[in-house]
Amino acid sequence: MSVEIKTIGILTSGGDAPGMNAAVRAAVRTAIYKGMRVIGIRRGYAGLLDNDVFEMNIRSVSEILHRGGTVLYTARSHEFNSEEGVRKAAENCRKNGITGLVCIGGDGTFRGARDLCRAGISCIGVPGTIDNDLACSDYTIGYDTALNTAVEMIDKLRDTIQSHTRCSVVEVMGHKVGFLAQSIGIACGALVTLVPEMNYDLDRDVVDRILYTQRSGKNHFIIVMAEGCGSSSDVADFIQSRTGIETRVTVLGHVQRGGIPTARDRIMATEMGARAIELLEKGKGSRVVVFRNGEVTDLDMEKALAMEKTLDLSKFEMTKMISL
User: Fold this and answer.
1) Same structural domain, 138 and 215
2) Does a structural domain hold residue 246?
3) Could you tell me whether strands 247-251 and 167-172 are parallel, antiparallel, or unpaired per DSSP bridges?
4) 324: helix, coil or strand?
5) Is residue 281 part of a domain?
6) Which residues are part of the catalytic machinery?
7) Residues 124 and 288: beta-carbon distance below 8 Å
């Protein structure tokens, strides 16, 4: 039996991603338009445990569409990962009259939402992560902005690399997954892209390719490396010792999380935020809003979490042929 949703809560959790604010804005205004009361929850599940909440109106989300980060703030909570923590969070929802919750974030956020669903709170997950690593959705909010930010930085870096005939090892985000790194490598024409999912031999996969392209007349080289692959400084030292080419490291770091969201991220986030409220209005819970086969739709949360995403290895073969 479906439950009528009169008051909803909205939170952002895990790593921030450009476009989260657009999703919050869409969810808040769609809910208010449909006659719902909206409670904002600061600092994700940690804020829900601390009852750090406030009532939102249509003006609460004015002038945030174009802003990076998240106006609701975000945090990670060890307490919430326990059964007692989930019960406390669910009880705080009930104390505030919240019967439906929109949870914007990545895999960890969805697992938290699943646990709250099991505790009796209807939750809808909205995919927001720069890694684009959720198998359930072809696209996640923040990915396009992070990708464009990294490519812009590397394009600027290329001018110096070329002027000084150097090799540059560019470390990008991605502790466990290389989806973002792979796309950055393709978009900036990196000679080699190193990702956590693949084993690599520095002599065979990096040094030999540098020497090969050097013989064909190339005199500057870009290596993109996901942070989960190890020490970028060690890789740079190895390259320089083997080739004699001056090799520098550039760590892009958290600059990839920030900045003005692209039009694509704003549009996708807006559609997903609105869709989350439509699901709650229909009395549906334990769903994840996703982008699949060219459209915004939704999946069962348990099914979505069980899906696994793998890198498209054919893209690495393609780049080997053209990034010379």
Assistant:
1) no
2) yes
3) parallel
4) coil
5) yes
6) 131
7) yes
CATH number of the domain residue 244 falls in: 3.40.50.460
DSSP secondary structure letters along 120-149: T-EEEEEEB-TT---TT-S--BTHHHHHHH
Residues in the chain, total: 324
Assess contact for 192 and 224: CB atoms under 8 A.
Answer: yes
Tell me, yes or no, whether 27 lies in a domain: yes
Longest dimension (CA), the chain: 70
Residue 15 pLDDT level (bands cut at 50, 70, 90): very high
- For residues 273 and 296, membership in a common domain is answered with yes
**Strand, helix or coil at 225?**
strand
Q: Which residues contact 280 (CB under 8 A, 6 or more apart)?
A: 5, 8, 31, 36, 100, 102, 122, 124
Q: Are residues 243 and 291 in the same domain?
A: no
3-state secondary structure of 219: coil
Q: Looking at 257, 272, 291, which one is the last position of a domain?
A: 257
Whichever domain contains 83, its CATH number is 3.40.50.450
Range of the domain at 215: 144-257
Nearest-CA neighbor of 161 among 255, 230, 84, 224? 224
The 10s digit of each residue's pLDDT in 32-90 is: 999 999 999 999 999 999 999 999 999 999 999 999 999 999 998 999 999 999 999 99
What is the Cα–Cα distance from 120 to 317, expressed in whole angstroms?
Answer: 48
Confidence of residue 324 (pLDDT cuts 50, 70, 90): confident
Q: Report the domain count for the chain.
A: 2
Neighbouring C-beta atoms of residue 283, cutoff 10 Å: 14
Say if residue 145 is exposed, middle or buried (CB neighbours under 10 Å; 0-12, 13-18, 19+): buried
In a domain, 316, yes or no: no
3-class DSSP state of 86: helix
The DSSP H or E segment spanning 224 is: strand 221-226
HSE, side-chain direction, 13 A CA sphere, residue 51: 8
Tokens at residue 72, please? 């609701």
Place of tokens 């790593």: 15
Q: What pTM value is reported for the model? A: 0.95
- Identify the DSSP state of 173: S
